[in-house]
Write a structure and sequence with these properties.
With 245 residues, this protein is an alpha/beta fold. It has a single domain, classed as Spore Coat Polysaccharide Biosynthesis Protein SpsA, Chain A. Helices cover 33% and strands 20% of the residues. It has 9 helices and 10 strands. It has an 8-stranded mixed beta sheet with strand order 1-10-8-9-7-2-5-6, sandwiched between helices. Strand 8 and strand 9 form a beta hairpin. The longest helix is centred in the middle third of the chain and has 14 residues. The two termini are 32 Å apart.
């Protein structure tokens, strides 16, 4: 296991191969059902996230896939993904890992970034930097830490995900796809990417699990914001706590 402390550099390493960014989403979420379709910045929260990732990630390097379930309740999720012109893959409701493996089958890649739909402010710059660090350090799994809650990601090698398809047996391990790795870190090369400086604000919460969370992130926007999904992570931090910056 390795750890590091970092800010996001202005210059980014070239990435020669296209990687997958998989957004896992279902309509009937446990804590706040239907939240993916609740409005954020005047559009459904899932649309907000998809627009944010499409606007911030270079298309030649990253392929975005929306991974939802085959349940009829998720027709609305699949339809929205198609409207936003991203690939949609549908699979087992409870076996999230199986959905990721199916993404890899349909779109072979070396690296897969996990994004959850309840994190509408997932930062594209963080994704690029995390993938670059993954390549640089030649690890199986990378987890971003010390960022505002809901802005980071974790990153898997394709080989690791395929191993998890065999090793992860329990329902919880199949639903929370990093659980087996975190419980068996001695088996893998892992790296915990610690962010510092103005990015290091773990007390700021921009994830959405409750209606209070939703109201909290809605408060970020200002009248006159154009394309609010483009707001930078540092601007979000500033708006959430003006004393920081």
């Amino acid at each position: 296991m390795q750890t590091s402390s970092t800010t996001i550099p202005a210059d980014k390493s070239d990435i020669s191969q296209r990687h997958l960014v998989v957004i896992q989403c279902r309509y009937n979420s446990t804590r706040l059902p239907g939240k993916a379709m609740m409005l954020l910045g005047g559009i459904p929260m899932l649309s907000f996230l998809l627009k944010r990732l499409k606007a911030g990630l270079p298309e030649e390097r990253f392929k975005i896939i929306l991974a939802t379930t085959e349940d009829a309740a998720d027709d609305i999720i699949a339809n929205l993904g198609e409207e936003e012109e991203v690939e949609v893959l549908r699979g087992d409701e409870n076996d999230v890992l199986e959905r990721y493996l199916r993404c890899l089958e349909g779109f072979p890649a070396d690296i897969v970034v996990r994004v959850t739909a309840d994190n509408p402010f997932t930062c594209p710059e963080v994704i690029e930097y995390a993938v670059n660090e993954m390549i640089k350090r030649k690890v199986d799994y990378l987890k971003c830490e010390n960022l505002p809650e809901g802005s980071g990601v974790d990153v898997f090698s394709a080989n690791l995900l395929k191993q998890l398809g065999v090793k992860a047996k329990g329902l919880q391990e199949r639903e929370h796809i990093n659980m087996y790795v975190l419980n068996n870190m001695e088996e893998y090369a892992t790296y915990f990417l610690q962010f510092d400086g103005k990015y290091a604000q773990p007390s700021i919460r921009v994830t959405v699990d409750t209606i209070e969370d939703l109201e909290n992130v809605r408060s970020i926007f200002k009248q006159g914001d154009i394309d609010p999904w483009r707001i930078s992570l540092l601007e979000i931090v500033k708006r959430m706590d003006p004393s920081i910056i």
